[in-house]
Specification:
Helices cover 2% and strands 57% of the residues. It is mainly beta. The protein has a 14-stranded antiparallel barrel. A hairpin with a 4-residue loop joins strand 17 and strand 18. The longest helix is centred in the first third of the chain and has 5 residues. It is elongated and about 75 Å long. The N terminus is likely disordered.
Length: 430
């Protein structure tokens, strides 16, 4: 299996995300690219230039970094997500369906290098991730017939360059190489003898992987000494997750596999950000982010002789609003804080238990300490409060192809939870 567990996961299942489910950014998107930005809720990132990590959100910011710089760090993600609901059989019988703490914890690492080649031109390299997640509701979950597990792992490498075209304007761009793998699973919550399916049998399981290329561009405008605007855009990345499928939902006997693939697009994103130095010690920064999740319409499994519609998704574009502050308490110590609101990319009508996507509020604090002239250490802490969200999953299928309801009934429930993020980072200037 290569690198994509959410892409095929979302793909063949009625569901899809290297960390959590109701996470950080919308859908199966990750915002956590640095501990420095974490401490301000990633407010104003496309206009910030703290270290080599700045290129991840806006390659144009490379022109603001002197000499050669290296940033390395990691963020620990601890989601606490619960789901409480009811499964109702085709005969009208209702049973309680619950799962606690079903989104897995994870560590998200990152690595960045920047080099100022001359007064106007700079280069950079970045390694991190923009997408990932893992959920496991268990085979005993009452709604497992609609999906009981999903995961996605992605790794992204960037090569970036920036040029100062005017004294106040810089532009930048880069190529992105993405490696991804994903999986999704659903099992029968109750037997369906007519289809020869017993409780716990695999209904749908698919895994696959792919690699693909993308690009990004950005610009920065230094309005004056104390005010700056930044804008950045990342392209959509098209993936064809190749792997295998299993389960009765694909008309396969238990244990038999079939080669297949699924088309999946990682959506385009954009950010408009600002930075304002109010006094010698106080700055504020803000940003608006957009993700083109409306491109995620449906999941289709492609086989050599046919294509099978897995699920209608019908997601919506999502927006993120953030504002933060930086207070230079002493020449060596900087304190950061921020708040952000991340809108859901899924309406109640299309929300699923495997990806119980919902609105999120970020509350963040952080600090940076200049250990020496070359070394700066940063730390960030965030508490994400996920809005309680309801969902209803039902799939009757057709006379020729019974839907998930025949293997356990429809599911109706509510997801609740929160997420803790803790990050550390070291920035070194040569």
């Amino acid at each position: 299996m290569k690198m994509n567990k959410t892409l095929l996961s979302a793909a063949v299942a009625v569901g899809l995300l290297s960390t959590s489910t109701v996470t950080h950014a919308a859908g199966f998107q990750l915002a956590e690219y640095s501990a420095t930005g974490l401490g301000r809720a990633y407010a104003g990132e496309a206009a910030m230039a703290d270290g080599a990590d700045a290129q991840w959100r806006n390659p144009a910011m490379l022109t603001y970094l002197e000499g050669t710089q290296v940033s390395v760090g990691a963020i620990y993600v601890d989601p606490n997500i619960d789901i409480d609901g009811t499964s109702t059989s085709m005969m009208g019988q209702s049973t309680s369906s619950n799962s606690s703490d079903f989104a897995h914890s994870a560590v998200i690492p990152n690595f960045y290098v920047s080099h100022k080649y001359n007064e106007k031109f700079a280069l950079g390299f970045a390694a991190g991730t923009n997408y990932g997640m893992e959920t496991d509701l268990g085979k005993d979950f009452g709604g497992a017939n609609h999906g009981n597990e999903a995961s996605v792992t992605t790794m992204e490498l960037n090569l970036n360059a920036a040029y100062q075209v005017l004294e106040s304007v810089s532009i930048g761009g880069g190529v992105r190489y993405i490696m991804a793998e994903g999986s999704f699973g659903a099992v029968a919550s109750s037997p369906f003898p007519l289809a020869g399916v017993a409780k716990g049998d695999t209904l749908k399981y698919m895994e696959g992987d792919d690699t693909a290329w993308g690009w990004q561009v950005g610009t920065a405008w230094q309005i004056n000494e104390n005010n700056r605007l930044g804008f950045t855009y990342k392209s959509e990345v098209d993936l064809t997750l190749e792997g295998h499928a299993e389960g009765a939902g694909f008309k396969l006997p238990q244990g038999q596999k079939r080669n297949g693939s699924m088309e999946l697009a990682l959506p385009a994103t954009a950010e408009l950000a600002s930075f304002h130095q109010l006094t010698e010690t106080v700055a504020i920064h803000a940003s608006i982010n957009w993700t083109n999740w409306s491109s995620f319409k449906e999941l289709v499994a492609d086989f050599p002789t046919e294509s099978v519609l897995i699920k209608e998704e019908n997601w919506e574009d999502n927006y993120r609003f953030a504002i933060g502050t930086t207070y230079q308490m002493t020449p060596k110590l900087a304190l950061r804080s921020g708040i952000a609101y991340d809108t859901s990319a899924v309406s109640e009508e299309h929300r699923t238990a495997t990806i119980p996507e919902t609105d999120r509020t970020w509350l963040s604090i952080g600090a940076g300490y200049q250990w020496s002239e070359q070394l700066t250490l940063d730390a960030g802490f965030t508490y994400i409060l996920a809005k309680d969200a309801k969902m209803h999953e039902s799939d009757l299928g057709s006379a020729k192809a019974p839907g998930a309801d025949f293997f356990g009934g429809s599911f109706e429930g509510e997801v609740t939870g929160s997420i803790w993020l803790v990050g550390i980072q070291a920035n070194y200037r040569f």
